[in-house]
Amino acid sequence: MIRSLRRTLDRRRQADGRHGWLFDPYTGDEMVAIDCETTGLDTRTAELVSIAAVRIKGERVLTSDSLDLRLQPPASLRGDSIKIHRMRGVDLEDGDALEAALEKFLDFVGNRPLLGWCIDYDLAVLDRQLRPLFAFGLPNVCIDMARLYLRELHRTQPQMSPTVDFESVAEALNVPVMGRHTALGDAVTTALMYIRLKKGALTAR
Amino acid sequence: MVRRRCDGDRLMVDIDLSQLPFTLLDDIGRERVLRGVDLIYFDSDAVILEAGQPGEFVYIIHKGEVAEFDPHAPISQSRIAHYTAGDLFGAISILDGSSRYRFKVEQESLCYVIPRALFLRLCDDYSTFAEFFRRGLAQKTRLLAERRIESGVNMAGFMLARVSECMRAPLIVDAATTIAAAVSRLNESHADSLLVGKGGRFGVVTKTDLLNALVMEGATQARPVIAIAHFELVSTGPDQYLFEALVQMTRHQVARVVVVERDRLVGVVELTDVLSYFSSRSYMVGLELEQADTLEALARASARLPALVQGMMTQGIKLRFVMDLLAALNGRIVDKAFQFLVAPRCRAQSCLLVMGSEGRGEQILKTDQDNALIVADDSDWPDRAIVMQRFTETLHTLGYPLCPGNIMVSNPAWVDNESGWRRKITRWAERRDGASLMNLAIMLDARGVAGDTRLLERLREHLFANCSRDELLLSYLARAALHFAAPLTLFGTLRKPRHGIDIKKGGIFPIVHGVRTLALECRIGETSTSARLEVLVEQGRLESEFAADLGEALALFIELRLKQQLTHLDGRQNSEEPNLVVVQNLSSLERDLLRQALHIVKDFQQRLTHRFHLEY
């Protein structure tokens, strides 16, 4: 609710701006699966470490034309998050500056619908970084893979008590987990989950 | 588009690029593949590529199963091939412009796809990569063999040595040389033998010959050495494998062969020199065989053959040479046993034949004894039946199982005099029923191993004279090679892993029998399939490329079967079906080879159909 209000507001403001086209309704048949690695789990303080996005077209995941951005090391990069995404300061030294990275990201996703695993978290972090620099949040339609899976599971197998963590969903959908805890790997896996679910992986059984 | 990736392990695309054909690219090429692939998901029963449709991608299966169909073939035979995880398809469709067959998903599949444009660019930039897809089976198996050798099998290196690497310069003396001069020449050059030239021909004189002449015959030292020289020389070429030279020595029971290049004598290979190369078992078994003077000793030597085969196979020696050596050794065993049991007088009046795979020299482990005896018309051999009964029993104790079809010399039907055999063959050729055709096929593969082999030569002439012009008989015979097309269809439906492809029926038999039929038509006296193929090429009946592919396909089938037999030998599996190959147990390259080999069989069957008018 608040999000759609904000989006209307943003659209007004951006109508004649450089990013106005992002607010146009999307008419194509593609989607973009995204994933971000961050320095923490608190959306108010977490900084972006890497952003990945990969396009989905029909049953095809366009890994050859994907976006895999690494950012300059944020101040809050600390030991505990390095353990998860395995990116140290040195790995990020030649990374993009935040603004340039977000610009590339916006260019890549355009006005296509976005897909992500627990996408609300990624959106919150991205929006927090976008607003001060571009004066708008991501206007795209967003689909949360985890929620979509839960809904589909309830519809087809109401008796099941689901485990909804990334690995077990991938297994239930018979999707190989590609490079877990790299942004691009998770994005591709999420994209494959989506295709499988749309193809009726749950109803088939 | 913006993409940034630092190092390989951060790429999430995990195709196994350490397999052929990607090993033909360099790191940059492989990096291009990794960057260029997309992922596509296919539902069960989806058609990935329709026949006649242009190829857009090269597919590499990450997960799932895909079948290849020939839409023009009847349903029962339409299934051509089967692909599972790690397999690659679609490349040929791109190179040819359109797909020859239909690719359909058997089990939901996730595929990596290399776009057409990238694939073609890779082919342009890496010629060996491009060649891989255009190559025939023969070349592919060579790649496989090369890779095997590279993978640290150091024995293979010198087992595959050429004659030229091991030969000595010939020690040639002129015809006037005396024994005394010859001995001092031998001592000077630390050699065991020398060659005497006379009128463009050469004879060999060994130290043993000299000793015998001086001591046993009391020759004087001034006698010319040419008088004691042997002029029947076994020769080989400098490019032959040393291994083949060893086979020749075993077969002719000599200790040296001369090396001839373009009619010029260039060297000598001594058995002792070969030994320094093969310190290993093959020669030891041969030696033990030669020295065996009792049946027990012979049995001991014969029991070592399976281990020898296993050893040579793991050393990566080409199957054809292993088979050749084994045929020679088995021939010697049978010959020896024959000598032990049959009086010399009777041996001179008869010819012992081995038939079936043994006759073709294509058996690897000991197979059933398939043998027969031709006796000269004027022979006088009253206790023949008893001796032959004993002979069969002896071979049995030497480790050759009895033939379930009773095609053995203990069976009076397979022992006859020459004119009796002629009548039999004429009768079989006239009848043309199943049993007669089988008997003819068996006789075609007969090889004489002991006694007077001229008896067999004459009989073969008779067989050719009777049959090779008989179109009707030939087409009856050829039909059998088409009989077992059906097992091919099993290829795709291997849902249950215990099923398998019967490579004997589906692969070995059609090739062996088809080539046999062609050999009969062209009156080729050779019995091994590869030798027959060579002659067929010489006579212009087959293109050399197709013949090479057929030979390789056959070798592949035999090798696969042998692997299974060896596993059974180790007792790891207890199945009675060594001919069933379970596709899932093979590596993806082996699967690829098997698939191609079966394609070749199919092509060959089509040619036979056309040649012998078997369309209906």
UniProtKB/TrEMBL annotation, chain A:
Span of domain Exonuclease: 30-203
MF GO annotations: 3'-5' exonuclease activity; nucleic acid binding
Keyword check for Zinc: no
SUPFAM superfamilies per UniProt: Ribonuclease H-like
Entry keyword annotation includes Hydrolase: yes
GO cellular-component term (any): cytosol
Pfam families recorded: RNase_T
Ranges in coiled-coil conformation: none
InterPro entries: Ribonucl_H, RNaseH-like_sf, RNaseH_sf
Keyword annotations of the record: Exonuclease, Hydrolase, Nuclease
GO biological process, one term: DNA metabolic process
Protein name, per record: 3'-5' exonuclease
